[in-house]
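Sorry to interrupt, but I need a hand with the structure work. Can you supply me with one protein entry, sequence and fold together? No commentary is needed, just the two lines. Leave the record below and I will have a look.
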Amino acid sequence: MGLWGTLSASIDRVNQLLGKAASIMILLSCVVSAVNALLRYTLDISNNWPLELQWYLFAAAVMLGSAYTLKRNEHVRVDLIYSQLSDRGRIYVDLFGLMVFLMPACILFAWLSWVSLFYPSWLVSEHSLNAGGLVRYPVKFLLPFGFFMLSLQGLSEIIKRISALNGKSTLSAADLHYEKPMQ
């Protein structure tokens, strides 16, 4: 498998776990919403923290689930020529998109969200201004972390595609799958 293959498999495993955690966070946000509704409408207890917790859980699900979605090749594509290409042609298009668009954007967004969003919030231990609100910097950490994990998954996908082009491995059918739009 080699060093690069081991690195790719490790990144895939971590993002698989984060994807499962994202699914659980969606469920938890629904539970929090139901409990909040129960408290508000049956016991007349109103508080801001359940609503903020629900937002935080949704944010975590999106930011942790994006790398998992890339791993599963399930991001939305705009098909101009992709469906007409051979498997090898699709690998080249994927490599171009990963290296030219995804990686620079993710690295830039991870860095910018760290220096301008999370780090300043962490330095002042930012809290919500709402009564009963939650601490803000943990949820702000999700942005640079999510983009970092998405860039790692991008690296894993680049490794897999270069290996496939060199004939050292084959991509799974899911990695080359393209669902054509309905006619």
User: Anything to note?
Assistant: The chain is about 75% helix and 0% strand.
